[in-house]
């Protein structure tokens, strides 16, 4: 796996063959579970996918699961939720980097690109939506993890699509002025 900056990942994705366009996978990494969300083929909309159990001992198995998802869904990159905090290094940020490092060390995801995206309040927002439904705690937790991943991925997709549109509009205006 190779880290790339958020806009670079998306711009590289746009350069790929339109017929064989790749998708992105959003990850909400928690202590026990990893929520997954996948983008549509046009990379506009995030959809909940599943939840993987996370243990120190099953990182090889998780990497194998990711390999399967990469081939099944034509994935080109991962958007990993990251707790950005400018004041201090958050303990969750260290856990996130260790998780990504562990995945990289398996060497099963070579060539895959990933970037970090701010996950601030994604879990809390989903929790506030799910809590009034009165679901069984296990079912509610699964829903919260998947939809937190949707929040991370959708936030990324909204940002990069808007940025690409604005850049295209600026180029159109500058070419008209010449």
Automatic annotation (TrEMBL):
The entry's keywords: Cytoplasm, Hydrolase, Nuclease, Ribosome biogenesis
Spell out the InterPro entries in the cross-references.
RNaseH-like_sf, YqgF, YqgF/RNaseH-like_dom, YqgF/RNaseH-like_dom_sf
Query: Mind telling me which Pfam families this protein's record contains?
Result: RuvX
Q: Which Gene3D superfamilies match?
A: YqgF/RNase H-like domain
Any single GO molecular-function term of the entry would be:
hydrolase activity
YqgF/RNase H-like domain span: 22-126
Q: Name one GO biological process term.
A: rRNA 5'-end processing
Q: Write the protein's name.
A: YqgF/RNase H-like domain-containing protein
| Species of the source | Dovyalis caffra
């Amino acid at each position: 796996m190779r880290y790339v900056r958020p806009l670079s990942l998306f711009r590289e994705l746009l350069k790929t063959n339109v017929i064989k366009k790749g998708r992105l996978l959003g990850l909400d990494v928690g202590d026990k579970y990893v929520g997954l969300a996948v983008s549509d083929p046009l990379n506009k909309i995030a959809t909940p996918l599943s939840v993987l159990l996370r243990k120190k001992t099953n990182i090889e198995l998780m990497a194998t699961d990711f390999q399967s998802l990469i081939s099944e869904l034509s994935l080109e990159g991962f958007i990993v939720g990251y707790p950005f905090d400018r004041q201090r290094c958050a303990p969750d940020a260290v856990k996130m980097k260790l998780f990504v490092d562990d995945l990289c060390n398996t060497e099963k995801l070579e060539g895959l690109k990933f970037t970090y995206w701010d996950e601030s309040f994604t879990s809390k927002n989903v929790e506030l939506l799910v809590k009034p439904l009165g679901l069984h705690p296990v079912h509610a937790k699964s829903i919260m993890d998947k939809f937190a991943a949707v929040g991370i991925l959708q936030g990324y997709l909204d940002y990069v699509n808007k940025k690409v549109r604005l850049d295209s509009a600026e180029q159109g205006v500058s070419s008209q002025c010449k």
